[in-house]
Amino acid sequence: MAVPSEFTTLDISGTYVLNKSQSDDTDEILRLQGVGWFTRKAIGLATITLSVKHYKDDDGKEHIDIGTTLTGGIKGTTENRTLDWNRRTHEDHVFGSVIGQSRRVKVEDVESEFLKNGWSQDTVEHGLINAYGESDTPKSGLSWVANQTWGFEEIDGERKYVRHVDFTGSDEPSPWLQRTWTVRGRTFGLPVEGRFMRRTRHLTAPWLLVLLSAVYIIGVAFFSRAQSFQVPSDSFIGCTATYWTANDGCGLDGQSCAPFSNTTFDFRCPAQCASVVLQNPRTIGNEQINFQPLLVGGGDDQSTYRGDSFICAAALQDGLISNSRGGCGTVILEGNFTNFLPRSARGLTSIGFPSTFPLSFRFSPSAPFDHCIDMRNEALIMDVFITFILFAFLRPKPIVLYWCLVCIGFWHVTLFSQPRSNPPDLADAFGTFLPALFICYGFWRLAIRFVLPIFSTKMPLEGAVWFLGPYWVTILTNLTTDRIPINRLTAADIKAQPGGLTALIIIIIIVIVIVINQVRVIRKTGWLPHYLFWYIMGGLVTLVLALLPTLNLRIHHYIIAMVLIPGTAFPTRPSAVYQGFLLGMFLNGAAAWGFDSILQTAAQLRRDAPLGSDLPSFITNSTTFNASTPFQNQTIFWSPIPDGENWDGFALLVDDVERYVGTALNYSLGALQAGIPHFFRLAFTNSGTAGDFTMPATLWPNGTWVDPLPGPS
Q1: DSSP secondary structure letter of residue 658
Q2: pTM
Q3: Which of 119, 490, 646, 683 is positioned for an S-S bond with 690, CB 3.0–4.6 A?
Q4: Burial of 661 (C-beta count, 10 Å sphere; 0-12/13-18/19+)
Q5: Highest-confidence range of 29-38, 93-102, 297-306, 636-645, by mean pLDDT?
Q6: β-pairing, 697-699 with 705-706?
Q7: Which candidate, 528, 540, 541, 533, places its Cα nearest to that of 569?
């Protein structure tokens, strides 16, 4: 409305009516500020009146209090601004949580051309009123900035009170499958998303979602029963199940692992055991193997395996079960066996062992059970199909869709793709599920609610690709990242595994590129200082944890997801990909492994690797061994315990079996079989507990003694 010439920015007190014919449409701005459709339409139809009171307080500070009234005296928003440029929070019943600051500013100090041009001479002389406001994103869940300048202009020959508003909202991507192009005056379109949404609108009825949920729960129950609960629970074995443990784990003469023969066991193996490998070196005779299934023997006519071989890998190599479907079988313990021959079959290679071992096994061709097929592939097809139907066809509210993805992913890992035990321990799973839901709610509040709704409501086909593809890639981390030679993010593991360092460098480069792009996106929104502050604080806390004595920092992949998801809270296609990837990573980590501690002791990280303890030494060596002495009269010797050491005895492994524990300094070979190689490893003991064993010394049938290599075995 027109104002008298004496009105200047020094005092704008008065009552003003918004002239909508001379103003730009504000509907899109209001939408981006989170104002609902009905409220926006009411504002669009109503006459808006501003009551402005401009004054100075006793300290000389300028204040501008503004009350908004709609047609019929309906009270609108209230603004109480102090022109001192201090940030103040404000709870508004229309715009939610807002942070604002105001000041008087010279025109030349304003950066935006739109905000600084067009003003009257007196406005330039007295200065503009600069009102800056932004969403309080952590509270409101929105991301926008409104930078305004107020003053007076000449419009159509009349002096008017005017506000210039430079508004920046979240920059939403437009659908790639809903584009139009104009070429030489002719318009071409790709209306896939719009046409698809119109033709499937009838499928978005809530009762269809309820029906599908009921059918899905029943289907999962039947799948889970067929997968895990129709075979005796004690017949399930894991991919690393074996009859004999490493080093002295079976006790003197292996009695803790008895019986050695005349025993059968009906078993069921899961699928995908071919990729389950040793994670630390294992000494077999005079060889060490690592990063492959533990298989010894199987190359003779009856496929005889040494007792410490992985049962499922042996059954797979022998053709009894399938790697993709698992299977059942009967293992027969055969007792003592000599000269285990190597074998290569069905993609697996075993090593040989030319000496004798007290426990061996073979397989019976008969199938002991009826329900032996691992159904994880069928369950995967069903779950992928269901998530696509949810995303593309049923299109529930974004938060409902999100919780569906959380629940489907968690229970797929728990029941099918990577259960912690067989059959799955449901009590243990629910113990993890509830805190996982709490963390996932945090993901929703911090990041996912700013991205998922845009893709699920406006471009469901495209959104299904961006979200569900990466989501299922990391839900199945045990398969999709199986070829990457990194098992754990620890220096020792990366150094030990061939290609580990190269893979880590490639991953770091990819992550740096992604982070740089996300920083670019965040900087455009003005939120970069906020994110930098909290990530720096988190980094400092992590540094403190890493420096704690006796503990090692262990970054599990569920922790990586928790750290990175907040940085994806921006509606871009890369953010959608990252969110799907990280959500699947979190669900896989939590469901498959639980919430392992971020700090672990060296013993927890070591698993079955050497302790790093002192090593004894043999007196018998290649120089002192007398090959002319008959084998039955041979004795090997070792050095006594050094003074001051906290050891009280020795343990001796002969052919990978503990044959002596005590304080003696020699061992007679009279009880051993002549004519075959023998392997000797020695360790100190303390109260019967052995330290690290030496590398093997080898005595060949021709009387040649080979000294052990340095280091533990």
Answers
A1: E
A2: 0.76
A3: 683
A4: middle
A5: 297-306
A6: antiparallel
A7: 528
Cα gap 127→156, rounded to integer Å = 23
For the chain, give every residue range classified as CATH 2.40.128.20: 14-169
Q: Give the phi and the psi of residue 605 in degrees, each rounded to 5.
A: -80, -25
Q: How many CB atoms lie within 10 A of CB 255?
A: 12
Span 407-430, mean pLDDT?
95
Q: How confident is the model at residue 522 (pLDDT cuts 50, 70, 90)?
A: confident
Burial (CB count within 10 angstroms: exposed 0-12, middle 13-18, buried 19+), residue 130: buried
604-620 confidence digits (pLDDT tens): 777 778 888 999 999 99
In the chain, ranges of CATH 2.60.40 domains: 631-706
Q: What's the rounded Cα separation, in Å, for the pair 387 and 425?
A: 25
CA distance 225 to 692: 45
* Tens-place pLDDT, residues 119-143: 999 999 999 999 999 888 666 667 7
**Centroid of chain to Cα 594:** 12
The gap from C-alpha 430 to its chain's centroid, in whole angstroms, comes to 19
d(CA 513, CA 501): 19
Ranges for all domains in the chain classified under CATH 2.170.130.20? 236-364
Q: Tokens 């060296």 identify what position?
A: 602
Rounded Cα–Cα distance for residues 614 and 647 (Å):
9
pLDDT at 121: 92
Structure confidence at residue 368 as a pLDDT band (50, 70, 90)? confident
Tokens 């698993």 belong to 607
CA distance 305 to 297: 5
* Contact (CB, 8 A) for 595 and 439: no
- φ, ψ for residue 43 (rounded to 5)? -65, -40
Residue 392 is given by DSSP the state: I
> By the 8 A CB rule, do 230 and 371 touch?
yes
Classify domain 236-364 at the CATH topology level.
Answer: Ferric Hydroxamate Uptake Protein; Chain A, domain 1 (2.170.130)
Q: List the one residue out of 454, 449, 466, 446 whose CA is nearest residue 403.
A: 449
pLDDT band at 181 (very low <50, low <70, confident <90, very high): low
String of DSSP letters for 102-145:
EEEE-GGG---HHHHSS--HHHHHH-EEEEEEEE-HHHHS--EE
The tens digit of pLDDT for each residue in 642-652 reads 988 889 999 99
pLDDT band at 188 (very low <50, low <70, confident <90, very high): low
Q: What residues contact 172, with CB distance under 8 A and at least 6 apart?
A: 454, 458, 571
Q: Which two tokens stand for residue 592?
A: 């498959």
Write the DSSP string, 151-176.
EEEEETTEEEEEEEEEEEE--PPPPT
The band of 183, judged by pLDDT with boundaries at 50, 70 and 90, is low
The encoded tokens of residue 325 equal 């479907």
Among candidates 227, 35, 206, 218, which has minimal Cα distance to 135?
35
Q: Residues 61, 84: contact at Cβ < 8 Å?
A: yes
CATH topology of domain 631-706: Immunoglobulin-like (2.60.40)
Looking at CATH, the fold of the domain delimited by 14-169 is given as Lipocalin (2.40.128)
pLDDT category, 399, cuts 50, 70, 90?
very high
Other CB atoms within 10 A of residue 179 CB? 13
